[in-house]
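Problem: given the chain below (253 residues), write out its structure.
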Amino acid sequence: MSALSILTRGSIAGALVGCALVVSSAVGAGVTEDEAMGTRLAELLSAARSIVSNYQTLINDPAQGDKHLDSERFTREAIAVYSKNTSHDPLSGELTERDRRLLEAQIDAMREVIDEQQADINRLGIGFKGFVPAVFARLMNEKFAAKVGNEARVRVTAPEQLVRNRKSLPDAWEAKIIETVFSDPKRPKGQPYTEITEVDGRRAFRMLLPEYYTVSCLVCHGEPKGEIDVTGYPREGGKAGDLGGAISIVLFQ
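Solution.
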């Protein structure tokens, strides 16, 4: 079997499997251009993951071959979810040339992942395919990085103790924000954190958007803690509303 977790508005990939997380990412007055762009990228990733989550029963149906879930349908539905959540199309508004290029690259990345996974999605006689939102997001973000890695990066990470795929471990900056900022009880829940810093020796805008477990996440990530879930990992004992992960955005300056 090839290797093939989401938000409530405002979803996690490297740490969560097949659940819908929740991220608060509304764009308000006074938001900078980079913050607005980071939010668009996070929202589009979240919308795409929600499609994978919504179709888990279909994808894992061993009795049905062609699921009719091709990249055209998938992308159309992901954009529709994005538009419903944000009240605008991802490519609408006065976007800069860079922003349009990044969003188009993200859409192309999701389309390519679905194209490449068609054989597994449509495989007869196999139930759980392993094509969960977490894996989809990692593959999509890797393709996005290959297209625009010198301009931007998107990834999903989580508190280290929740990470199931070691590729999704938080870097030093992400770990610091998760451990010190997102854990502050006085900080409004769901508020993203932004900072201008350096990444690989380059000046960059960084944005981390917290994600929280929803009830659907607890099938794999809830109680009893330590019990093995359908993916073969031990449950974390989480509760709805607990911090489950974060979407990390880097926009190089």
